[in-house]
Amino acid sequence: MKRITIFVPESAVLGAISGPRYLFTTANQFLQVQGKPPLFEVLLTGLSRNVKVLDGIYSVAADKLLDEVKYSDLVIIPPLFGDMKDAVAKNKQAIPWIISQYNNGSEIASLCVGAFLLASTGLLNGKKCSTHWAYYDEFRETFSDVEITDGTIITEENGIYSSGGANSYWNLLLYLLEKYTDRNTAILAAKYFAIDIDRENQSAFSMFKGQKNHNDDDIKQAQDYIEVNFQDKISVDQLCRMTAISRRTFERRFKQATNNTVIEYLQRVKVEAAKRSFESSRKNITEVMYDVGYTDTKAFRTVFKKITGLTPIEYRQKYNKIAIPLM
After folding, report:
1. Which of 60, 78, 203, 250 has the greatest number of CB atoms lying within 10 Å of its CB?
2. What local confidence, expressed as pLDDT, does residue 182 receive?
3. CATH for the stretch 217-319
């Protein structure tokens, strides 16, 4: 029997508490139908018997208090709701318990922005982590010793798991279910819950807004210029002349401020503009490619897929509901 303990944080997202519980209890039913014994004991645990979640709108009844749960095979940390610093502060008393569970042999899985609470334990220091793409900058600023894996839905390192944004936590749950049971059970669950079991990337869902949460005004000036003139051919030397900074210093400061090289940043701005066009216009692939400053179809397709995980045609088919020509 595998004990799955779902920690119910104060200010948690309700659906990400019920989802894991539903999945693993349903997996027990699948196993019983196959003539096998149930495998999972699923517990809800919290700092109190009735935990206020989703900004106090709902409450969840915990099966056990934290100090009553001495061992788990897997501890799940659902995403927090609202301001991350405040949400972590409300649950700081759980941090020693999470650490002790891991030190006693438990695996730990954070879902979406539950990574903020997990990272607050120090267990992620020097390790890789996934979280919601919209929180990358805040996470990096708060936890400089943790490596965010951009766009990745699942990370795993030394018995610690994390998932990407929003509903992509289901992909991590299926991954864990397959690990504890088998591929067939995970596929059955994926079909039952209507989940794409092998989705590996959340990049197609992310919106690039530019990393401007820094204090380097020269770099912000360069970023603003790129975002207004992305369709033009912009060189690093041109940006250096505009900001009166040497190339070596400019490239170092740009990378430090934005977590991207200049070329990467320009590519992401171009691709974001292309995504918006694919989502809302009747323009074909070639027209959009030229609009965002590309003249080489292969280069455009390669960069677009690298950033979004989809080809331009796949992205248009997935996110544009208007019947339009592809080329």
Report:
1. 78
2. 85
3. 1.10.10.60
Where do runs of H (alpha helix) occur along 81-168?
84-90, 95-103, 115-120, 136-142
pLDDT digits 0-9 by tens, 209-241: 667 778 899 999 999 999 889 999 999 999 999
Degrees to nearest 5, angle at CA 87 with 83 and 93: 160
- What pLDDT is attached to residue 175? 87
Contact 162, 79 (CB under 8 A): no
Domain boundaries of the chain, sorted by first residue: 2-205, 217-319
Distances (CA, A) of 225 to 158, 258, 269, 296: 43, 15, 11, 23
Are 169 and 79 in contact by the 8 Å Cβ rule? The answer is: yes
By CB neighbour count within 10 A (0-12 exposed, 13-18 middle, 19+ buried), where does 3 fall?
middle
- Mean pLDDT value of segment 68-97: 94
Tokens of 73: 């095979």
| pLDDT value at 7 more than 70 | yes
> What are the tens digits of pLDDT across the range 198-209?
555 545 545 566
Distance CA 149, CA 151 (A): 6
Candidates 53, 55, 57, 64; CA nearest to 3 is 64
Please tell me whether residue 71 adopts helix, strand or coil conformation: coil
Using CA atoms, how far apart are residues 216 and 208, in angstroms rounded to an integer? 19
Residues 6+ apart with CB under 8 A from 271: 208, 292, 303, 304, 307, 308
- 2-205, CATH topology level: Rossmann fold (3.40.50)
